[in-house]
Amino acid sequence: MYDSFADRLTMAFTPFDWWLIIVLSLIAALIMRKWPQWPAAAAIAFSVDAIAPFFYRWATGIPPDFAFDFAFSRLDERGGIVVLMRLAIYFVTIGIIYWAKKRYSRV
Description:
- Helix 3 crosses helix 4 and helix 3 (38-59) crosses helix 5.
- By secondary structure, the chain is mainly α.
- The radius of gyration is 16 Å and the shape is globular.
- It is built from 5 helices and no strands.
- The model has no long low-confidence stretch (mean pLDDT 84).
């Protein structure tokens, strides 16, 4: 059971996914002003993460229906646990970056 769970999580995140998670988390954490904005920042970053593959595929010449199928299947192909893990990773990374920003800022 644990082997399949670990395999499912490691196969679900490509290097492009990690790059997108880090960049979107960094942008969201730098825009945040107060801690109560944390859930909204994570939700917006996750939403952008969900629709970014659609616009990327569409811009590279793939028809919109195939681009939408790819974007939707990327979130759904590994089951709901990957979607929840993405959201949890956004919460954690945005929180860490925002905490570091507040801790080490000069203001």
